[in-house]
Every structure is written in structure tokens, then in C-alpha cells.
Design goal:
It is a single chain. With 81 residues, the chain is mostly helical. The protein folds into 2 domains: 40 residues; 35 residues, no CATH class. 59% of the residues lie in helices and 0% in strands. The protein contains 4 helices and no strands. The chain is elongated, with a radius of gyration of 19 Å.
Length: 81
């Protein structure tokens, strides 16, 4: 599917420069961003994901989670490359 966007020239040129610095095209940069937005989880899906990470109360086997451990994968998933 093709998509037409209306942007001012200065914005397009700045975005092209960002894409060049990342070694990609503006088209690919926009495509990846839209795919990331469309692929985001809903609130219920996020809740289910977190619930699956936690065992029943008292069944944690002493495992303690650091905040960074819980978010590293999610942050990496949406990091612009």
C-alpha cells in the first residue's frame, strides 16, 4: 500500500538527514516507525505479559526482579536503529 504525507520541505530534509545518519532511507525510517506504532501492545496485552512473568504469590523461588531487567527487552524492541 502506498501512503502520501504532506510535510514541509525543512522537516523532510531534516528527516532525510537523520535517515542518512542511521544508514537507511527516509522511506524505511517512516515504514519502521509506523510498523512499531501498529505493533504496540494494548493495555490488556501488556497486563497479560506482566502477569505471565510473575508466579503466584509465595512462589517466586526467591527471585527478585530489577526494574531494568523487566523493561530492557521492551525498550530494545522499540529502539530506533
Amino acid at each position: 500500500m502506498n501512503l502520501t504525507l504532506a510535510l514541509n520541505d525543512a522537516t523532510v530534509e531534516r528527516a532525510r538527514e537523520v535517515a542518512r545518519q542511521q544508514g537507511t532511507s527516509l522511506n524505511q525510517l517512516v515504514r519502521e516507525y509506523i510498523e512499531m506504532l501498529a505493533g504496540q501492545l494494548t493495555g490488556d496485552e501488556i497486563l497479560a505479559e506482566f502477569e505471565s512473568m510473575w508466579k503466584e504469590p509465595g512462589q517466586s523461588d526467591g527471585k527478585r526482579f530489577r526494574r531494568g531487567e523487566l523493561y530492557d527487552e521492551r525498550l530494545d524492541r522499540y529502539r530506533v536503529r
